[in-house]
Write the structure tokens for this entry.
Amino acid sequence: MPFKILKKQELVPTIHLMDISAPRIARKAQPGQFVILRIDETGERIPLTIADFDRKKGTITMIFQAMGKTTTQLSTLKEGNDLLDFIGPLGNPAHIENEGTVILVGGGVGVAPVFPQARAFKEAGNKVISIIGARSANLLLWEDKMREFSDELYITTDDGSKGHHGFVTDIVKKILESGTSVDRVIAIGPPVMMRAVAGVTKPFNVKTIVSLNSIMVDGTGMCGACRVLVGNETKFACVDGPEFDAHLVDFTLLMNRLAIYQPEEKIAFEKYKCEREGCKC
Amino acid sequence: MLDRQKMPEQDPKVRRSNFNEVALGFTDDQAIEEAKRCLQCKKPKCIEGCPVEVRIPDFVKYVSIGDFDSAIKEIKSVNALPAICGRVCPQESQCEALCILGKKGGPVSIGRLERFVSDYESKLEAEIPKKPEPTGKKVAIVGSGPAGLTAAADLARVGHSVTIFEALHAAGGVLTYGIPEFRLPKDIVRAEVEYVKKLGVTLLLDSVIGKIDTVDELLSDFDAVFLGTGAGLPMFLNIDGENLNGVYSANEFLTRVNLMKSYKFPDYDTPIKKGKHVVVVGGGNVAMDSARCALRLGATEVTIVYRRGEEEMPARAEEIEHAKEEGIKFRLLTNPVRLNGDAKNWVTDIECINMYLCEPDESGRCKPMPLAGSEHKIEADVVIIAIGTSPNPLVPRTTKGLEISKHGTIIAKENGATTKEGVFAGGDAVTGAATVISAMGAGKIAARAIDEYLKGK
């Protein structure tokens, strides 16, 4: 049962948006959940966080960065093409309630999964402060969409080409130091960013939630590839997460485990590029 | 009385580096000779040993006269998956254990004959039985493993409309993700699944019940639900170092190899750590499968670490024998206490302690006790934990009124009825990790109970 790509767009260089026709999944999807997809028969199963969903149209929106073999191959697909497998909605939904004031931090491609949470927190009556960051202004995602559901929106870039010159953590720290009462922080982005945010919020004792992007195979609790250490207990990101209390997560282990297949990822990517572009070797 | 025919097999030296099937199957002549050994007992004991009630002497008789078509038809009238059973059933403790000839030259090779006639049929166009009169009743089957496939086939055969929901992208459950190609070729599984589909069963892949639909939602569309969700949750040892890079659950290792075909990496995209020194912890069939896969991926040395002795190993004797022939090392009465790693979180060795056996425990097996002062290290760059699995909680957690035991297994009566009206269950989800054939037996029994239940509705 193939899953059709209804929309495909390169939002900023290397970061792509895709709407997939998957009515059964769209019917159930919640912010915080993810899907697993497989492009073709020889493809691997990769998890991607749900960036948006439209129950009426029956679509799931994903945002991904073309980095390795599978995501690059995915970025070459066009509207009208099919994905062989599309499985979800997996993982637990984000816990969304009226907390008071919530800071949402999205780094890089992590802005995408933060967006449906910003919307949901806003709709639940919270004051939403959003901080979105990128390496450079031209890589900044979804500023407009985030602004629509944010009471305050801050932008940071590593090179200073837009907004604050520096990291998202600088702004988080400034807000917390200013004495603004913050009830919850949600941070989604590269593990180093999530670790840094956790480090900043810890002294202020503000509940901080991160979404862990571990390596997964089945995504249903069957294999344990995604195991993470949370509060010294082994958890499976796919069924116990993907969201966890940032102050309890062992980020070093997470990053070490994310590096397991680096040599193989390189081999697969080189082979793919050779086949696409013709091999010089 | 003639001795059992010998099953041709791939040479261990050759097969240890390929994923092709180890056993090659009887020739026509061998099958006929073997079948002629059957005494055609008036009160056949062998049938009592078959969880899916195959009328063994009847099909063996057909084989003995060379009528293979009738033989396979006879089996398939009760068992939809004979090519699988013929390969992975522990016949030595079931049908063959009860064969009168066991005392003289060895029992009739019932499993190998079953396999022979299934393979004979696979070369032809499988005959599809006539579709029965539809009953108008709808049954949802959750999970397409041995229990689900068997229940689906039996329910379709009596005219119910059956839909299977499978979480993964391929059908077969443990037959597909767990048991390796060299023991059960995936083409065989695919063919058996196709046969079940031809009986009229609808198969929906990529459908995680508990997520995309709950059991309660299924009950609004279907008249009954069968849960054959298996025992998919891997157990770990809960010792230090288990999250080091290079440490796998057997489920992950086997899923990468079998379902994702990572042994064909990079032609297939899913990677796997091949390892030079691989240690597998456990003594069951899954441990043997993991060890033999690791060897085929190119490991220099593969060691099985098991805390009891060979006698106590739950693996089939044939699998232990095959593993030994291929050069797998066995460190028995040895139990891991810790995994050590390097600065980058990669496993370097597994620290173990020697064990000795004392009185039998509640499982009837001798309880292993650590021998103080016997700690030692075994070098390892890949470690596979194969100490068992427990049922996946996705369905129980999302189903109101479905009671589960403290072990996480679904509570069901002998006929498969659970504590929730209209919901039946069978296989590993109910018993905890067991065998393919016991799951098939449970699927068969539950199908009968579901049929009864639907007649009363």
